[in-house]
Amino acid sequence: MKHEFTSINGTGLLRKCDPKGCGNFGASRGNHTHRGIDFHVIPNQQIKAPFPCTVNRYGYPYSDDSSYKLIEIVGTGAYSNYRAKIMYINTFLSIGDKIDKGDLLCTADDITQKYGSEMTPHVHFELYVNNELVNPTNYFKNLV
Question: Which of 32, 33, 41, 63 has the most CB atoms lying inside 10 A of its own CB?
């Protein structure tokens, strides 16, 4: 059963194509493809939980740059087969914290500090269902 998620940026606005690339699932990234979707944000914008979840872990999207962080969440209750990674964020919750759908999860970092102002500021969202990477686009309503 597929569940509907809450927009993590509150608007459903996605990063389109900019001079640095496109934010849709499967977009070209040189020798690989984009593994998620990018939600357009402004730095320090509140990021909401897309589904009821528990904070599973924190990590770093870049092995050579610990200034950018990611949060991994796992669904609870009816959402227990979902896991998501949200990248380019600032954190304040602890591992194991439980968050309701739509509640504050983290805030957006400023990815343009790494890639320049030609890149649309965004957070990256990857979705795994039963531990398989999937296109998250159809799980959100009213994406723009």
Answer: 41
